[in-house]
Write a structure and sequence with these properties.
The protein is 12% helix and 21% strand. It is α+β, with helices and mostly antiparallel strands. The radius of gyration is 16 Å and the shape is globular. A four-stranded antiparallel β-sheet has the order 1-2-3-4, with helices on one face. It starts with 25 loop residues before the first strand and ends in a 9-residue tail after the last helix. The protein has two helices and four strands.
Length: 130
């Protein structure tokens, strides 16, 4: 299990700029999976951090929330295939929203997450049902 950052996409100047020397923390501008921006398409803005026993990335766009596919793309860039990361939905009293189009993924270092049995989620043998 490993948390790693794609340094080739690191923001290196400006307010959110950093260097590889800071490790896994920093801001990153991630192109779509196709690596080619289509008209009107924006790169994913990602802020990564690790510390105090947590690995974290926030993923945002200026005018919409990231899609499931985009979140999967980011998960694959920042964690290994066998790592389980989560999106939390906290109690209302603990809810914080600093950006209307930002989603977060977290992994607690040294913890294995229990996940529901696969049959409760769906049947892999069915494939994708359109």
């Amino acid at each position: 299990m490993s948390f790693h950052v794609p340094n080739e996409y690191r923001v290196r100047s400006g307010l959110m700029g950093s260097t590889d020397a800071v490790g896994n923390a920093g801001a990153f501008m991630i192109p779509p999976r196709s690596r080619i921006l289509r008209a009107g398409e924006m790169p994913l803005a990602v802020v990564a951090s690790d510390g105090e026993g947590w690995e974290h990335v926030s993923v945002s766009l200026p005018n919409r929330c990231p899609t499931w596919d985009e979140m999967c793309h980011i998960k694959a860039l920042f964690w290994d295939d066998d790592d389980c990361v989560v999106q939390f939905h906290p109690p209302r009293a603990a809810h914080v929203n600093n950006h209307p189009y930002c989603l977060h993924m977290w992994r607690q270092v040294g913890q294995e997450y229990e996940t529901p049995p696969m049959w409760m989620v769906g049947y892999k043998s069915l494939g994708v049902i359109a």
